[in-house]
């Protein structure tokens, strides 16, 4: 037993040294950081921050060059060429059936192709997402998990913007509080994990600084924007049929039902310190976000 442990320790040290040597032998201009979901809410901000720091960055999505599609493994090799670190934002969500298999296949390929650091965006309170986290944790390379609560930006560039513009956030959620988080904070944490030492092996549970119910979210948006926005709770069945009628793809309909039916039951109703632990500062408050977005004009109705 003792022998096995010491052999394992020696071989993992050797592995570490071999990886260091390999990393040093890669020309720094070839050390590309891949940003999966790089045109989305978090990925776009991660990519912008990396580029500002002068880090060679490749945006990966179906509209990227080369194109990357989670549903087409044939697109993965080219996206990974020359990549040493990757930010993984899986679309549409780590909870959907098949996500774990996709993450497993991608991570295996990434490590084979020389990726040495993985940063995974995950969701709080989703058992399926936690299985995907384990895949990244077991990959044998440096890893960080950024486990996020609901995003502020769902109300300004995501699924709920249309409802805000209509003046009624109409969802099946009971008025359960959620410590929603600003996507700019998530991007700061992800970039720190991608570019700095000291984040290996960390699970950063990132939330905003306080909990808000949907009613309170609507009130904050009204206050900041000067428009009347209300929260209207509707029955699950009415919500489910509205999604189907809107023509949303089956997996999105499944996902929204799962999120409201299963995840939003109060299990995430506590604030966490991931932003402070990763960055040494407090997370952004929803009121600050709401004033910023109101000032940008996103919540103004088209004339
Ligand atoms: N929204 C929340 O409140 C919340 C909370 C916690 C965790 N999360 C997690 O956040 C992740 C989504 O990240 P996000 O909000 O930053 O992204 P997003 O805004 O939802 O955008 C999706 C991104 O993925 C790309 N994409 C979509 N389908 C793809 C496919 N089949 N293959 C490759 N790329 C694809 C899109 O670009 P193209 O269209 O060009 O392909 C886009 O870049 C999910 O895993 C979700 O679980 C979300």
Calculate the mean pLDDT score and round it. 90
| CATH topology (fold) name | Rossmann fold
Shape: globular
Instruction: State the distance separating the first and last CA atoms.
Output: 74 Å
Would you write up a description of this structure?
The protein has a six-stranded parallel sheet, with helices on both faces. The chain has twelve helices and eight strands. It has one domain: NAD(P)-binding Rossmann-like Domain (Rossmann fold). β4, α5 and β5 (142-148) form a beta-alpha-beta unit. The model is unreliable at 1-11 and 16-28 (pLDDT under 50). With 303 residues, it is of the alpha/beta class. α4 (99-112) packs parallel to α5 (127-137), α8 crosses α12 (286-296) and α9 packs antiparallel against α10. It has helices at residues 2-25, 41-52, 76-80, 99-112, 127-137, 161-166, 183-195, 214-225, 236-245, 250-263, 274-279, 286-296; strands at 32-36, 57-60, 83-88, 117-123, 142-148, 168-171, 202-206, 230-233. Bound molecules: NADP nicotinamide-adenine-dinucleotide phosphate (NAP). NADP nicotinamide-adenine-dinucleotide phosphate binds at residues 37-43, 61-63, 68-71, 89-91, 93-94, 121, 123, 148, 150-151, 154, 158. NADP nicotinamide-adenine-dinucleotide phosphate (NAP) binds at residues 37-43, 61-63, 68-71, 89-91, 93-94, 121, 123, 148, 150-151, 154, 158.
Q: Key terms for this structure?
A:
single chain; 303 residues; alpha/beta; Rossmann fold; six-stranded parallel beta sheet; two-stranded parallel sheet; 12 helices; globular; disordered N terminus; binds NADP nicotinamide-adenine-dinucleotide phosphate
